[in-house]
Amino acid sequence: MVYDPSGRRRDDCFFSTDLTLKPPQILEIFALRRPLEVCFRDVKQFLGFEDPQNRVSKATQRTAPLIFYIYDLVLLWHAKSGHLFAPQSAIGRPWYKRKTAVSFEDILRNLRQATWQEKIFGDPRLDAHTREILQPLAEWVKAAA
């Protein structure tokens, strides 16, 4: 049982079928799931992971890896060079006065704006790494069309 004496969080119960684990170990294992759950939420919400209605065997085998590949490419782009474009695409939200972390939605908005700057407005500020990451996606879009 986990109890917050301040009352800000609800009481909760964590357990494991592994009887050799001590309570702190159970909580540590549970905490490791958080990034995985956030990843699945992001690919469902922002990359349409739940949308495809595949009926062909190969399509069902390719859809999930492709969506996770795109997710990885977007995160790698942000880590390598996308963070440099972040101030240009930031949206001021008065209800997030203390927001310090970047969400996947922020990263996608940033990538969209950087791509539009080049493709629509001819702005050549995208670095070689960004072009390298966008190239496979552009090729897949052409092949799928």
Structure explained in plain terms:
With 145 residues, the protein is mainly alpha-helical. 59% of the residues lie in helices and 0% in strands. It has helices at residues 23-47, 57-80, 86-89, 104-119, 128-144. Helix 2 (57-80) runs antiparallel to helix 5 (128-144). The chain starts with 22 loop residues before the first helix and ends with a helix.
Kindly state the mean pLDDT as a whole number? 81
Largest sheet entry: none
Principal-axis shape: extended
Rg on CA atoms, Å: 20 Å
Strand content: under 5%
pLDDT < 50 runs, ≥5 residues: none
Residue share in helices? 55-70%
Oligomer: single chain
What distance separates the N and C termini? 54 Å
| Structural class based on helices, strands and sheet pairing | mainly alpha
What's the number of helices? 5
Give the topology string: H per helix, E per strand.
Answer: HHHHH
Total beta-strand segments: 0
Please supply descriptive tags for the structure shown above.
145 residues; 0% strand
Offer a concise description of the structure.
This protein is mainly α. It has helices at 23-47, 57-80, 86-89, 104-119, 128-144. 59% of the residues lie in helices and 0% in strands.
Task: Please describe the topology of this protein.
Blueprint: H1 23-47, H2 57-80, H3 86-89, H4 104-119, H5 128-144
